[in-house]
Amino acid sequence: MNPSRRLVMHGACALLLAATLPAMPAFAAVDAAGVKFDDTATVNGQPLKLNGAGVRTKVVFKVYALGLYLPEKKTSAADIQAVQGARRIHIVSLRDLSSQDFSEAFMKGLNANTDAAERTRLQPQIKAFNDMFAAIPGLKKGDVLLVDWIPGTGTVCTLNGKKIGETVPDVAFHNAILRIWIGNDPADSGLKPKLLGG
């Protein structure tokens, strides 16, 4: 067989093989409205896996993309809240949001997924979070807000890589934040199953 014919046959075999193999996974696990969430993240030296990600919509508007990272994948809200180790809520704003808008949405989600007794118990932490919102002008499109739970330290927030607000030490508060999106009355019923790995 002459070399050129051999080359053509090798090329045809390679194309046939490529067509029958499953597609290789991309480096980004999820693309949510153009925001790419990586498969993994690291919080305080602990490697985490992307549990799920999606978009928070309000009426017809895309408000932000959100990814949830855990030490290992979980498919129920109860299991997520029982996770030992670090966690990360990764929010990327898809539009400009005032600090008041974000604070009101936070409080609405918190109130919908906690009872009066729990809110009373968490009041100091809730105030610290609201003070954090008041201290920033808001979120611009493309801004990245990370809400990390670090065992032994607490809930730490960073905006575009810069720490904002106080560290809140109570894990019950972090669980209350999580329930805004994965609780019984989530902020977006379409986003919840995606965060639970659906």
Topology:
Blueprint: H1 3-20, E1 28-32, E2 35-38, E3 40-43, E4 46-58, E5 61-70, H2 77-81, E6 87-93, E7 97-98, H3 99-112, H4 116-121, H5 123-135, E8 138-139, E9 144-150, E10 154-159, E11 162-168, H6 171-182, H7 191-195
Antiparallel strand pairs: 1-2, 3-4, 4-5, 5-6, 6-9, 7-8, 9-10, 10-11
Characterize the structure shown:
The longest helix is centred in the first third of the chain and has 18 residues. This protein has seven helices and eleven strands. Strands 3-4-5-6-9-10-11 form a seven-stranded antiparallel β-sheet. Strands 1-2 form a two-stranded antiparallel ribbon. Strands 7-8 form a two-stranded antiparallel ribbon. It has one domain: 3-Layer(bba) Sandwich (Chalcone isomerase). The N terminus is likely disordered. By secondary structure, the chain is α+β, with helices and mostly antiparallel strands. Helix 3 crosses helix 6.
